[in-house]
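__Protein archive entry__

___
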Amino acid sequence: MKVARYLQLSIAAALITIALKTAAWWLTGSVGLLSDAMESFVNLAAAVFALAMVTVAHAPADEDHPFGHGKAEYFSSGFEGLLILGAALAIIWAAVQRLLAPQPLEALGLGVALSVVSSVINGGVAWMLLRAAREHDSIALEADGRHLMTDVWTSIGVAGGVLLVPVTGWLWLDPVLAIAVALNITREAW
């Protein structure tokens, strides 16, 4: 079952990016980078659920499912959308708190570098998942790959924006970026 191997790769990438992005947030105090880290937790949950559903989908037909279990992958795609929506709401909540109580950012160089490394990892895995989705006609791989590509673009936006905070002095830019990330991932959830 090659599809499962791709999802195991996605799980490994999620674990690595959680560590990198959480470190980036911890070093900088950026709520934008925190939102990026929260999105990686969603990536992990989605990949684990997708792996479970793909495993179910490949089970042979039985008395209760005479045509097999192939439709289980659709549950994975829908569940991933719900997880993304939940993360978006949590990100907006954290960003509003930071808008109400702005704080300066620290260690931006190292924090953004960690975020960029995680984006490179996610971009490579997303590319492999999308290619494998076409090859294996798997909606679960496609949903996971699209989700990771969304994460790549939002990470790039957050990193660029966070670097603008010390240049402009606009502390509000960090939480506004986090809200923009939340709105973007809400669009992807839909």
Notes: The longest helix spans residues 139-168. Helices lie at 2-28, 31-57, 72-100, 108-136, 139-168, 173-189. The two ends are 29 Å apart (CA to CA). The chain has six helices and no strands.
